[in-house]
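Hello again, I could really use a second opinion on something today. I owe you a coffee for this, so here goes:
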Amino acid sequence: MRQISFVLLLGPLLAFSAPSVCRAQTPAHSGFWVAGELGYGSVTLDSNVSSRSHGGFAMGFEGGYAFNPVFSVGLRLGGCTLEASNLNDPSRGESLSQFFAIVRVYPWRGQRIFLRGGAGSLRYTNNRPLEFGGSGTGFFLGAGFEFPVSKRFRIAPVLDFTSGKLDDVDNALATIRDRSCKLITFGISLKFS
């Protein structure tokens, strides 16, 4: 709950402080772009049986096409590793991955703040015995603020919130219903356009 409050507080703060602070270079680019990001993610997994939170390394890749300096569409592949896999121990490994169609918008002309969001598929992997992975659908919303490094490269701190539903587990070992996940990530993005 504290993490969601942080997201709800930081979003408006970025939105209202950006126009007065940064009347600088607009990301005036149309055409193809790619971006990669690294950071930290906190995942909350809920079901009718349990609720737990984990944190770990988050990474993402995006690519798309900017139709004009304000609006672009693309694809996002990302996620969060909660426990690293181990080839010598197949019972280790837990992660949440996402594959989304996205929209990226620069809502104020002449500003470097951007908002992004999208929807698509989620996949939860858990290799521990008697624990179950799954897949489902979800959405994400995020924001960032770009700093130009060169004419074509920009670096940006980004904050994202992902929410989704996972399929139920119903087998001889367990019946788990109402599975959902929430992921909050903070990272640094490097964009080339």
Summary: The longest helix spans residues 2-21. The chain has one domain: 2-192.
